[in-house]
């Protein structure tokens, strides 16, 4: 299951997650894109386009114009929501810089490493709802061990479908610590599989 379905959205988007501000910002951008009613493939392609434009940090994104962001979103296939998302990206960068000095690890610390509290804080970014916050927590646990084992309802639904334990701690016992985010990604795919 890990080999066939354990690729995270971050990996798909070309994000090398690390416990550093830039990759965590990139994950936040991806989660904002995934929060819209659009296919995950388009969101991932659009994230790649934004990063190719050089907006791998909130500072760099804030240096871009609204039209440059709209154009990049369009190149990624994110056309229906490109104008509102161009604004939301700028607002997200501004909030991150103003409140957490550009470092999502400070948000994590403010949340006292409590996933429910961190989820609430993530949802202060316009456009990120519960699903986007859950994606962030599922993927960030690969590099923020304080979040591990994070298993939201979609992961647990996939676990039930796969005949695995429906508890985060029990699921974490099935794999090495470093593999839990990949297991969560695989279980999300299992949950979404309609067959």
Structure summary:
The protein has 195 residues and is mainly alpha-helical.
Would you write up a description of this structure?
The chain has 13 helices and no strands. The chain is mainly alpha-helical and 195 residues long. It is globular, with a radius of gyration of 16 Å. The two termini are 16 Å apart.
Topology:
Layout: H1 2-5, H2 9-12, H3 21-34, H4 40-52, H5 58-62, H6 66-75, H7 82-100, H8 104-110, H9 115-122, H10 130-140, H11 153-162, H12 168-172, H13 180-192
Helix pairs in contact: 3-4, 3-10, 4-6, 6-7, 9-10, 11-13
Number of helices: 13
The whole-angstrom Rg is 16 Å
Query: How many strands?
Result: 0
Major sheet details = none
Q: How do the SSEs run, as a string of H and E?
A: HHHHHHHHHHHHH
Assembly type of the chains comes to single chain
**Class computed from helices, strands and strand pairing:** mainly alpha
Query: Averaged pLDDT, please?
Result: 94
Distance between the termini: 16 Å
**Shape annotation:** globular
Which range does the strand content fall in? under 5%
Low-confidence segments: none
As a percent range, the share of helical residues equals 55-70%
Which terms summarize this structure?
0% strand, mainly alpha, 195 residues
């Amino acid at each position: 299951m890990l080999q066939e379905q354990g690729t995270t959205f971050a990996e798909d988007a070309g994000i090398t997650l690390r416990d550093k501000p830039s990759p965590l910002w990139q994950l936040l951008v991806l989660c904002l894109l995934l929060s819209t009613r659009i296919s995950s493939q388009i969101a991932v392609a659009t994230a790649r386009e934004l990063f190719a434009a050089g907006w791998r940090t909130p500072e760099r994104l804030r240096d871009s114009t609204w039209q440059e962001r709209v154009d990049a979103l369009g190149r990624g296939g994110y056309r229906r929501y490109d104008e509102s998302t161009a604004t939301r990206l700028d607002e997200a960068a501004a909030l991150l810089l103003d409140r957490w000095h550009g470092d999502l690890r400070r948000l994590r610390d403010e949340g006292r490493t409590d996933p429910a509290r961190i989820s609430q804080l993530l949802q202060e970014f316009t456009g990120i709802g519960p699903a986007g916050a859950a994606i962030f927590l599922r993927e960030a646990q690969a590099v923020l061990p304080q979040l591990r084992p994070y298993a939201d309802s979609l992961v647990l639904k996939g676990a039930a479908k796969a005949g695995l334990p429906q508890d985060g701690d029990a699921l974490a016992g099935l794999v090495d610590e470093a593999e839990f985010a990949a297991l969560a990604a695989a279980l999300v795919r299992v949950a979404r599989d309609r067959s």
